[in-house]
Amino acid sequence: MSMLYHIVTYGCQMNVHESEKISFILENMGYQFTPNREDADVIVFNTCAIREGAEERVFGNVGALKKLKKSRPELVIAVCGCMTQKEETAKLFKQKFPFVDVILGTFNLHKIGEYIAKAKNQKVFELWSEGELDEEQGYNRSSGKNAWVNIMQGCNNFCTYCIVPYVRGREHSRSVENILSEVKQIAASGQYDKITLLGQNVNSYGKDLSPSVSFAELLRLVTAANGDFKVGFMTSHPKDLTDELIEEIATNDKVLKEIHLPAQSGNNRILKLMNRKYTREHYLSIIEKIKSRIPNVKITSDFIVGFPTETEEEFEDTMSLVEKVKFDGIFAFMYSPREGTVAAKMEGQIPLEVKKQRVNKLLALEKKIQKEAKKCQKK
Ligand code: 5AD
Ligand code: SF4
Predict the structure, then answer these.
(1) Which ligand 2 atom is nearest residue 165's CA?
(2) Is the pLDDT of residue 136 over 70?
(3) pLDDT in tens, 169-221
(4) CA dihedral of 308, 309, 312, 316, whole degrees rounded to 10
(5) What phi and psi, each to the nearest 5 degrees, are found at residue 264?
(6) 143-256 matches 3-126 in CATH topology
(7) What is d(CA 364, CA 4) in angstroms, rounded to the nearest whole number?
(8) For the chain, which residues make up each domain, given as ranges?
(9) Is 27 in contact with 140 (CB distance < 8 Å)?
């Protein structure tokens, strides 16, 4: 009988896509997927560190495997991803859950097969502080008709609340050549009707390449591949959203008219404290431009409420921005202090109760806007 594996994925699309790589590696080693973790010979947790809630869920779910591991000592449990890329958290895992066999981070993810094979004889605890972009391994694509294509790693922005630059490193763009060869393969397979280009900040794609290549150029090249597919992308940073890119989205039939453009706050003082590098006015002017140039465009956004020192009035600026733009969807998060980031050390942390009130208020507004939008569609 063949050996079975199970993967539990937390967090963003980048992680979902990286789990497709883990799956590819394990299947090449002869493992087969099982939807039941109780039956698995290998269980992988691909973790997320973006908010405390995500981390707590991981701790809870890994902890719950203690019994299973006791009854089946040959079971291999591996934990990887953004949470274990933080050395202190990785050490905490080792200490709290000595039954975990393999701990690795984000930079050495491509080594997971090797580590799992080793784990039959010894525990593996291996973190790297940086890593090359891995072009060797393929993906076991599992997102239906959509194929994810990673175009870059890391982030240079250091928004003061965000852990990503610490666990994913600086921006590294994949070469146009490698991206195009992957896209052509996907298109030629005829199995996908959508390709989604992934990066923490896709608008700054190619700035680190020589010669540099803009994201708009990359879109042109990717959509030029033969095949019947549309191209989406995420995530965009407002500070880097150029007119060239808006033009490309507007005029290129193969590019989906959907932009996820996190605003995070509608208040200028808070935006500055967040180190977002744009103002409310600038954000609104980009939205104007997008809407006037791309009819029927779908714009979505992320917001953080209860950032340190945020007053009720400043929160109301976020409410009014959401009311004004009437996004096609928003994600609203309570600010969660991440150790090691600038904002976690700021004075004036907001009590949980206040954050809850604000997030509920923002979500209620969002619900109202969506309801009205549906009514208008019906008319
Ligand atoms: N607390 C709450 N939300 C956060 N995000 C990033 N870091 C934090 C944090 N420390 C949100 C941002 C980002 C989304 C992916 O997660 O809104 O756009
Ligand atoms: Fe985090 Fe800001 Fe980079 Fe997005 S742009 S990953 S929020 S630091």
Answers:
(1) 8
(2) yes
(3) 999 999 999 999 999 999 999 999 999 999 999 999 999 999 999 999 999 99
(4) -60
(5) 70, -40
(6) no
(7) 44
(8) 3-126, 143-256
(9) yes
Q: How far is the CA of 28 from the centre of ligand 2 (A)?
A: 34
Q: Is there a contact between 187 and 230 (Cβ–Cβ < 8 Å)? A: no
304 lines ligand 1 (CB under 6 A): yes
| Spatial contact of 140 and 147, defined as CB atoms under 8 Å apart | no
Q: Which atom of ligand 1 is nearest to the CA of 262?
A: 18
Contact predicate 44/6, CB 8 Å: yes
Among protein residues, the one with the nearest Cα to ligand 2's atom 4 is 200
Report d(CA 88, CA 94) in Å as an integer. Answer: 10
Is 3-126 in CATH node 3.90.420.10?
no
Under 8 Å CB-to-CB from 172, ≥6 apart: which residues?
A: 133, 152, 153, 154, 208
Place of tokens 């497709």: 20
Q: At what angle do helices 215-223 and 243-251 cross, to 10 degrees?
A: 20
Query: Residues 6 or more apart from 209 whose CB is under 8 A from it?
Result: 173, 175, 176
Q: Please work out whether the CB of residue 333 comes within 6 Å of at least one atom of ligand 1.
A: yes
CA of 18 to the centre of ligand 1 (A): 20
* 143-256 CATH fold: Transcription Regulator spoIIAA (3.30.750)
Tens digits of per-residue pLDDT, 235-254? 999 998 999 999 999 999 99
* Ligand 2 contact, 157 CB (< 6 A): yes
Q: For residue 126, what are the CA distances in angstroms to 61, 107, 119?
A: 21, 10, 12
Report residue 13: phi and psi, to 5°: -65, -30
Of the ligands numbered here, which is closest to the C-alpha atom of 200? 2
The tokens of 208 are what?
């680190």
Instruction: List 77's β-bridge partners, or say none.
Output: 43
User: Is the Cα dihedral 197, 200, 204, 206 positive or negative?
Assistant: negative
| Ligand 2 centroid distance, CA of 287 (Å) | 20
